[in-house]
Amino acid sequence: MPEGLKRVLIVDDEEDLTWTLSKKLSKDSDKFELTCVNSGQEAVEVLNQVPFDLVITDVRMPEVSGLDLLVEVKRHYPQTKVIIMTAYGTSDVQKEATQRGCFHYIEKPFEINELRQLILDALTKKKGFKGSVSDFQLSDIIQLNCLGRLTSALKVTCDGEDGVIYFQEGNIVHAETRRLQGESAFYHIMSWQGGEFAVLRNQPTRKETISKGWQSLLLESLRRLDEDSDLAKEEADREKRMRQEKIQKLLRKIYLAEGVEHILIHSKGGFPMFYNGNLADQAELIDELGNECAGFVKALEKQARFLNGGALDFWEIHLKKRLCIIQKIQNQDAFLTIVGKTNINSGFVRLEIKRNLTELSDLL
Fold first, then answer.
1. Same domain for 174 and 284?
2. Pair (101, 167) in one structural domain
3. Are residues 14 and 100 in the same domain?
4. Distance from C-alpha of 152 to C-alpha of 348, rounded to nearest angstrom
5. Rounded CA separation 220/183 (Å)
6. Same domain, residue pair 267 and 193
7. Is the pTM of this model over 0.85?
C-alpha cells in the first residue's frame, strides 16, 4: 500500500451491499484502501492483523453486532474511528452508538456519495481531544476526575476558544468560558468536537456555580448533543433540498426542450449529484448512467491530451440516434451532461448552459 494511504474497513452481513460499496468506492483508491467483510467476527480477525483508520459497520449482525464491534474497536484501537450504518434507525440506537464512541451514524438507505463524503471527512478531520491521556474523549476525562475524587481543573481549547471545568473532591463545581459561566459554560464546552485538553491538578476555584451531580451533567450534555445533531441534520437536509430545487429550476428550460431525455450532474468519478429524466425512480440506472458518463469524460480527456487541446471544457457528441452535450462546471469536480434525441436544439442548450453555469457552480 502506498505510504500515507488510509485504510477503511466495511462490515455488513449483506454481501450484495458490500459488493456494491466495494465497486462504487473503488474510484477513490488513490485516497484510501478499502476492505469489505461480512461478519463482525471476521472484522475482529482482520483488525487483529492490520490497523485501520476507519471502520464502517452495520448494527444488526449475527454473533458480533455492530455495537459490540464498536466497543471492541474503542477498547483495543482507540485511534480508529467508527461509522454506524443501519436500516433500523432509532433514537435509542443512535444514543447508544454515540455513548460508545461512534464517529457518525447513517441510516439506510443512503446515497453512495453521502457515505463517500462521510469517509473522506472521517479520514481528514481530527475529532477527539488530545492531552496527557490522548486516547480518551472529554467525557472520559471528566469521569476519571469525578470517580477519582480529584480537586483539579480541566482546561480545554477548541478553535482558539478556551474553557475550564473545575472539580472539588470529584464534584463539578464550576465551569467558565470567555462569555459563559456555570452549567451553560459546561454544556458549551461539551459541545466542542475537537481540540486539546490539560488536567491541572490541585487547582481549586474561588467560585461554585454548579450544584448538579456530574452524572446528571454528562447525561444532559449527551441529550443536548443528540438534539443539536438532529437539528443540524434537519437543517442540512433542508438546505440540500433547497439546492436541488434551485438546480431543477435553473435547468427546467433545458429539460423541457424538445428531444431532451436526461440531464445529469455528476462528479468526475461518476457519482450522480443531480438528475432529471425518465429514470428518476430507478437509482441503480442513474448510478449506471453516471458511471458511463464518467467513462465518456475520461475518454474525451484522453483525446484532449493527445490533441494538445488543454482541459475539457465543452463537448458536443453527435451519435446516429442520440446527441450528448458535456459541460465542465467551473470550480467544481463536476460535469453537466445532457442526453437526448438528435433533434435537440443544441444552440439553445449552449445558451442556457452559459447563462446558468456560474450559479450552478455556486449551488454544488
1. no
2. no
3. yes
4. 71
5. 10
6. no
7. no
Q: Indicate if the pLDDT at residue 262 is higher than 80.
A: yes
Asked if 116 and 139 sit in the same domain, the reply is no
H-helix or E-strand spanning residue 19: helix 15-25
Tell the residue number behind the cell numbers 471527512, with chain if given.
Answer: 121
Can you give the CATH number for the domain in which 296 is found?
3.30.450.30
For the residues of 212-275, what is the DSSP string, one character each? S-HHHHHHHHHHHHHHHHHHHHHHHHHHHHHHHHHHHHHHHHHHHSTTEEEEEEEETT--EEEE
**Residue 244 sits in the same domain as residue 359:** yes
Residue 19 to residue 112: CA distance in whole angstroms: 13
SS (H, E, C) 136-187: CCHHHHHHHHHHCCCCEEEEEEECCEEEEEEEECCEEEEEEECCCECHHHHH
Q: Residue type for 303, please?
A: Q
Residues 97, 179, single domain; the answer is no
Neighbours of 188 (CB within 10 A): 18
Whole-number Å distance between alpha carbons of 204 and 168? 7
The residue range of the domain holding 300 is 236-363
For residue 32, list its beta bridge partners.
6
The answer to whether the beta carbons of residues 317 and 327 sit under 8 Å apart is no
**Number of separate domains in the chain:** 3
**Residue pLDDT, tens place only, 153-174:** 998 888 778 999 999 988 999 9
Residues 81 and 24 in one domain: yes
Q: Give Cβ neighbours of residue 302 (< 8 Å, ≥ 6 apart).
A: none
Residues in the chain, overall count: 364
Q: How far apart are CA 26 and CA 113, in angstroms?
A: 12
- Residue 90 and residue 70: Cα distance in Å, rounded? 17
User: At which of 163, 196, 212 does a domain end?
Assistant: 212
Q: How far is CA 38 from the centre of its chain?
A: 22
Q: What is the mean pLDDT of residues 280-285?
A: 86
Over residues 303-349, the pLDDT tens digits come to 888 888 887 788 898 999 999 999 999 888 889 999 999 999 989 99
